[in-house]
């Protein structure tokens, strides 16, 4: 059974940093690219970042470039996103996801990040 479990969310002040983790199980982790997607309260889903299976390629939505860094530790079956210079508009539930071309997608339950003074 594929499982994705996020952790690391919480309350942080504007300008602060957080690192989110996503522990994966139930599949060969390094065979798959992994993504982070967020949902601002009351709004739709927004793709944040992705990383290839071997970690060699990373992708970001424009507004996160330079502030967020995605990386993975395949020995630990974990993908991370380091978020710096956080803004109030980064407040959201952050989901870890594994997307497949065959539509067999998996999502974690999410972790809430609140950026507020």
Write the topology of this structure:
Blueprint: E1 3-7, E2 10-12, E3 18-25, E4 34-39, E5 45-51, E6 58-60, E7 68-73, E8 78-83, E9 92-98, E10 106-107, E11 111-115
Describe the protein in words:
The protein has 117 residues and is mainly beta. 0% of the residues lie in helices and 50% in strands. The chain has no helices and eleven strands. The protein has strands at residues 3-7, 10-12, 18-25, 34-39, 45-51, 58-60, 68-73, 78-83, 92-98, 106-107, 111-115. The strands form two sheets. Strands 2, 4, 5, 6, 9, 10 and 11 form a seven-stranded mixed β-sheet that branches. Strands 1-3-8-7 form a four-stranded antiparallel β-sheet, with no helix packed on it. Strand 5 and strand 6 (58-60) form a beta hairpin. The chain is globular, with a radius of gyration of 13 Å. The mean pLDDT is 96.
